Amino acid sequence: MDHENPSEVTDFIDDLHHSLFPQHDANDNRELPMQSTLKSNEDLISASPAEIDSLLNNSSSTLRRSQRVRKKKEIFDNSEPKRKKRTVSKSVSDLLKPCSKESKEKEAREQREHEERMKRIQDHEEEMANLDAEVISFREKLKQQRSLADKLQADHVRMREELSGQAIKLIIKDNLEKFKSIKLGSEYSWRHNMFFEEGNRAVKERHLLTRMIADPFSDEQLEISYNEVRRIWLNTPEEQLQNSRYIDLVLYPEILIIIYQCFFQLESKSEAEARLSNYMGSLIPDAESSKDSDIFL
């Protein structure tokens, strides 16, 4: 190099400066390690030969350090996306990882408890709905019974006022053959069957006594009808001795039912008996329900 030629000196200094101070990424704020304080072309031009020789002696180590820094940066830049990718991949893998056995058992237990709770709620709602339906049905029946009771009360008042003694005697006379058939057992009567069935006689007669009929007839109507029965079936002391219990417990109630049926022009004796039982508040068994009854035997 010719020190007397300024252009050659300048080119040499530029090359030396470029090699000593290479350009690095503008985004990289780190400074390359340099020991020299000569950081411009002007400093190099004005430097003494001793300073330039010292700078040249240190350039090798400076360049090696610069290369190591660049290499580390490249390694870091190349590995950073991979580490991020692995991290993201690991996070997704954790999210998709199958539930543990304890977690599955917990979920199954919670599901069963939920289903059982919903089943109890559903059963309770159904029970309450059935109860509401039963209450409504009971109220309807009670309403019907009250309506029937009111109607029966009005009918019975009319019967006590309109049923004369002559009409009672006429009804008994017109149905005399039916009463005789009941007494012989050819005409069905649950009272007749119970009276003659085997068993405890006192128990059976006590039950028949509780099924005696008085209301809704007036005292006068009862007296007229009973006197007519005594005239026909208890006319002599022998008949009274033999038939008095049967007449009182069986035949006389059957006669009163027929009188009631004829006065209100009902279709059957069982209907008349049901109306009387509703009025008296006691259940008088009808033909079907009492035919095979043995609870009082």
The tally of domains stands at 3
Summing up helix and strand content along with how strands pair, one would put the structural category as mainly alpha
Distance between the termini: 151 Å
Strand content: under 5%
Overall pLDDT, averaged? 76
How many strands, what sense, and barrel or not for the largest sheet?
A: none
Approximate shape: rod-shaped
Helix content: over 70%
SSE string, helix = H, strand = E? Answer: HHHHHHHHHHHH
**Number of E-state strands:** 0
Low-confidence runs of at least 5 consecutive residues: 24-29, 31-39, 281-297
Number of helices: 12
Q: Mind telling me the C-alpha Rg?
A: 62 Å
Features:
297 residues; mainly alpha; 76% helix; rod-shaped; disordered C terminus
Outline the secondary-structure elements.
Blueprint: H1 6-20, H2 41-46, H3 49-96, H4 101-162, H5 165-174, H6 176-184, H7 190-196, H8 201-210, H9 219-233, H10 237-264, H11 269-280, H12 287-290
What would you say this structure looks like, in words?
This protein folds into three domains: 6-95; 98-162; 163-290, no CATH class. With 297 residues, the protein is mostly helical. Helix 9 (219-233) packs across helix 10 (237-264). It contains twelve helices and no strands. 76% of the residues lie in helices and 0% in strands. It starts with 5 loop residues before the first helix and ends in a 7-residue tail after the last helix. The chain is rod-shaped. The longest helix is centred in the middle third of the chain and has 62 residues, at 101-162.
